[in-house]
Amino acid sequence: MRTEPTAGAHFEPAGDGTARLQGEITFRTVGPLVAAGADAIAAGRAQTIDLAGVSGADSAGLTLLIEWLSVARQAGRALSYRNVPAQITQLARLSDVQDLVLPAESAAAAR
């Protein structure tokens, strides 16, 4: 299930357990992304989410990633993120949640 581009952001499962998140992930754009990602995660269609296409993010973007991790845990699914943007990495570090959101090698490098 692909979300329609809403205010510059969309989520797209790739069919191989990976998904792509693209656009600006901000308070304006996260609403439709929450459900689209949660559905794909719970169904096992998004085990790895690639954020290479994210062009900007604010704290809502970090919150989105944490929410999706919660969905994965509740569904008994593994979830990881690739290519986490610098804005989210910095917010995660400042919020002391880098171990939740960042890949292990990125979290270690951020310390």
Task: Walk me through the structure.
- There is one protein chain.
- By secondary structure, the chain is of the alpha/beta class.
- It has one domain (9-105): Transcription Regulator spoIIAA (2-Layer Sandwich), CATH 3.30.750.
- It is 45% helix and 23% strand.
- It has 5 helices and 4 strands; from the N terminus they run ββαβαβααα.
- It has a 4-stranded mixed beta sheet with strand order 1-2-3-4, with helices on one face.
- Residues 1-6 and 105-111 have low confidence and may be disordered.
Secondary structure blueprint with pairings:
Blueprint: E1 9-13, E2 18-25, H1 30-42, E3 48-57, H2 59-75, E4 80-82, H3 86-94, H4 98-101, H5 104-110
Parallel strand pairs: 2-3, 3-4
Antiparallel strand pairs: 1-2
Helix pairs in contact: 1-2
Low-pLDDT runs of 5+ residues are: 1-6, 105-111
Q: What's the N-to-C terminus distance?
A: 36 Å
- For the record, the CATH class is Alpha Beta
Tally of contiguous helical segments: 5
Query: Mind summarizing the main beta sheet?
Result: 4 strands, mixed
Strand elements, count:
4
Shape descriptor reads: globular
Strand content: 15-25%
Q: What is the CA-based Rg, rounded?
A: 13 Å
Classify the fold: give the CATH topology.
Transcription Regulator spoIIAA
Secondary-structure-derived class: alpha/beta
Number of separate domains:
1
**Helix content class:** 40-55%
